[in-house]
Each structure stands twice: as C-alpha cells, then as structure tokens.
C-alpha cells in the first residue's frame, strides 16, 4: 500500500511501470477505486510510468468533509504528480475522472501532451438528476441505488457471464464512503466544463461503450467534437466502464492513438 498526504488529504496511490518519462495517470469514476484499471495497466507498464490514485472520499483515500469542488480534485492530482516528480502527464480519466482530466489539462496544458477521456463529457447529467440521486442516498444509503448504477455500468451480458466479478464490483460501490460519494455527486451537479474543454488543443482520444447508460455515445461524441484535435471511438458491447468489461478494446484504441501521435 502506498499512501501520501497532499493538500491535507491522505491519498492511496500506486506508482508502477518505468521509473522516468511521461506518466499515464489513471483517474477513476464515481463509486470506484483504481482497481478498475487492473486489466489495462499491464499493457503499458513496459513503456510508461503508471500512476493511479483513489480520489478523496473513495477507495482507501481519506474521506474529508464535503464542500470541495472539481478544482480541489484537480489540485490533488497536480500535487500528487508534483510529489512523485512527474512532469509530463497523459491523463486517462473515466466519467468524473474524465472531468478531472479535462480540468488538469485546462489548468496545466504544458504538462499534458495528450488526453484519454473514457465515457465522460464536459457536463455529466443535470442538476435535477444529481439532486434526486443524492436525496435517495441520504435517505436509504448507497445500497438503494447500487443495482440501478451497475445496470448503467455494464451491459446485461456481463452479469450473466461474470457473476462473481459482478458481485465484487457491486461490493466496491456499496463500500464507498457515503460522504465521499455524495460530495462527488455535488461536484457533478455543479460542474459544466464546456467552455474550458472547447479550448483544449492537445490530442485527445474519447472512448465510449456502445451500451453506456450513464454517458451515452452521443454525449461523449459531442464532447469530442468540441475539441479541435479529438477523436471519438465507440467500443462495441461495452458499458460505462469498458476498462472492466472490454479492456482489450480499450488497450487497442489507446495503443493506436499513441502510435498515431508519436507518444510511444
């Protein structure tokens, strides 16, 4: 276990791969920890430094009182990279992790030669949807929404084919600290990054599962279309977390993107 204190928050992270050079920094979605990347990371450890971290209030990272925003989550990633001596970052973000990646790239474009944005957008959902979800959790707990959330994460075939794994991901979600989950929901409710994302000029790969029930392909493509150097790739038979249900397709798309832009 690797832990570090940045911005007054203890973060759980992993630092693997090659010792120097550009790092792939993997940023997780709402209600997950960095294990979601377990089937993707090994494909890149021979050529990149790999940094993964649980955002505050998730996984083994410290759960602090709410009232923080997207800029604070971006600041945590920035401070972590500084502490580890990582300068150049290819940010790989899923869902809210993709918003954090967009925020990091907007704040420090000179540090981000490229972006991988998975199943994310410049604006995810609307205020009414997030307010409703938060109210349900406050009243009945995360367990009350878990089945509906996993239906958006995975296509129906995944549960039937991988019942044990499905149970494990369900447990990961329901064991997320409620305070951390709610604080991140509040960030999603309040965040519209459209203006900043339109200004991002670095190459970007926008991936989306064809069966994503949280950020559907049309939404992700619209985000790709607003960036001048972005490419959209739809992953067949994948849900909201293709790094779990279709990792080989994610790896192929990433490798092709890296080769296209001379990043390997």
UniProtKB/TrEMBL annotation:
GO terms for biological process: beta-ketoadipate pathway. GO terms for molecular function: 3-oxoadipate enol-lactonase activity. Residues 23-134 form the AB hydrolase-1 domain. GO terms for cellular component: membrane. Pfam families: Abhydrolase_1 (PF00561), Abhydrolase_4 (PF08386). Residues 192-259 form the Peptidase S33 tripeptidyl aminopeptidase-like C-terminal domain. InterPro entries: AB_hydrolase_1 (IPR000073), AB_hydrolase_fold (IPR029058), AB_hydrolase_sf (IPR050266), PcaD/CatD (IPR026968), Pept_S33_TAP-like_C (IPR013595). Keywords: Hydrolase. PANTHER family: AB HYDROLASE SUPERFAMILY PROTEIN YCLE, MONOACYLGLYCEROL LIPASE. This is 3-oxoadipate enol-lactonase/3-oxoadipate enol-lactonase/4-carboxymuconolactone decarboxylase.
